[in-house]
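User: Predict the structure for this protein chain, please.
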Amino acid sequence: MDQAAKGAAALEAKNFSAAVTHYTEALAINSQAVNYYIQRSTAYTRISPPDYRAALSDAEVALTLASKRGKRELIIQAQLRRAIALFSLDRYADAKAAFDWVKEMNKDEKSLQIWTMKVESKLKGLPEDDVKAQTTIQRYPDVEVPEQKEAKASNIPSSEPKPTISNQKGQATKAEGVQTPVDKIRHEWYQTDDTVVVSLFVKGVPKDKTTIDIQPTCLTVSFPLPTGSDYNFSLDPFCGKVDDAASTAKILSTKIEFILKKASVGEKWPSLESDAPVTTQENDMDDDGVNEAKRAVLADRSTNVGPSYPTSSKSGPKDWDKVADDLTKKPKKQNKEGEEGGDNGLDEEFEEEGDAVNGFFKQLYSRADPDTRRAMMKSYQESNGTTLSTNWSEVGKEKVETHPPDGMEAKPW
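Assistant: Here is the predicted structure, written as structure tokens:
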């Protein structure tokens, strides 16, 4: 059995860490196999803990390769994996754009309705200037993909001399070192609630000759160019403070990726750099316990009892959170590698990314008849997510009004 087959078997057995390993080894042999990237992206999404950035990277490489070959089915699969990874990274507007592109190519994709409802519910409460509500991606990403000849060369045993790449005149050409022209080096960034991710796109940066320095208010990186001079890149000062001890940098084949941990979780940076120096006043508040009090208030919110939702049932309102929890509660299982856990009543398709409540409603929707689905969609959308009815004979007669939970009021956006 080859590595790709082993990876598929591991994915089927839900041994996701083994699947990542096998597909990585398969890609070392064939670095342009689109399906290998798609499957490894799936494994990265489901591994514990998930690696959504790696899943996104694989999905975008797969999408680039598939688009160059014009493989429609692979383009759809890669774009779907990209959308799911973006949603998991809290990039909701980007995820919506990717899901829309999937819908253009295959409106019958069975998971689209559920994902569309999830992403629209996330976007509905966000202000327009929130980074999560801003679309930053293109239909086809601008990423570099490994060349087939590089993967083949990597399979030559280390005990044998590796061939050099020669030009037409027979002169040896260096295969190592920075291969991106200086005027083509660029950087991009995005942020989540707790991190700022910066990518410096440059191919072939030598790891052993690169200097990276991350400070609370700035970062610098320097590496040699083939001309003999050094390339210096700096961000100084940041728009906010970062935890330099928890921040990391990773040199990849096509870029340098910086994952900067925000010093203030939830702080929104309007830009990557600031014109004014970053002060330490907010950190100084820790001495008076102000920040600690803020964290305690935010933590306390997560323990509040959930609201009760309006219902058309004559028997009165139900606690849907409790119903979903009872239906989707998993039995205890052993932690041995490769051992099945026990059926929690949810289909495997809906066990993927998401909590038990979402899984319950996915299962309810998937097994419903057409009229029940129409009732669910119409009631959920027209009521702005406050009512979910399965009775089409009642919902189909008129518009479903918005009924906010007790203690809250609906406001137009």
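The beta strands are 165-166, 172-173, 186-191, 195-201, 211-214, 219-224, 230-235, 242-251, 255-262.
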